[in-house]
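Subject: sequence -> structure tokens, single chain

Hey, anyone have a minute? Need the predicted structure for the following. Not urgent.
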Amino acid sequence: MAEAQALFGAAKLLLGRPAETETCVQEALRISPRDEGAHRWMYYVGLAKLHLGDDAEATEWLRRSLKANPNYPVAHFVCAATLALLGKMDEALAARKEGLALDPTFTISRLKKVWLSDDPIFRVGSRRLMKGLHLVAVPEG
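Reply:
Had a minute. Here:
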């Protein structure tokens, strides 16, 4: 049930309702606080917060995700983007470096290919992510 709750949160993000993601993930974490997938769930909230323009809170959720699993490359890249949007370029570059160490083939174009939503609200939030990734010079591909 915890995984289902977290996936509801991810679905809310993809449906252009990122403000509802955190509630679902909080419930998943309540049900299974030490779940092996919790790092993904926290990543969903971080991405939702970025979509909402709350880069500071996004960074905190992404750091929680990375604390739970430091080997999750996409969380490093999204964290780098949020840090860049906050103007914390040294930290952003360090996060990008960690992401590239884990996945040296990561590119912005590869990330764009896996978007699972054409929702207009989701797309607006995704443009914020792309802006952050460009600011921190993630390879375009």
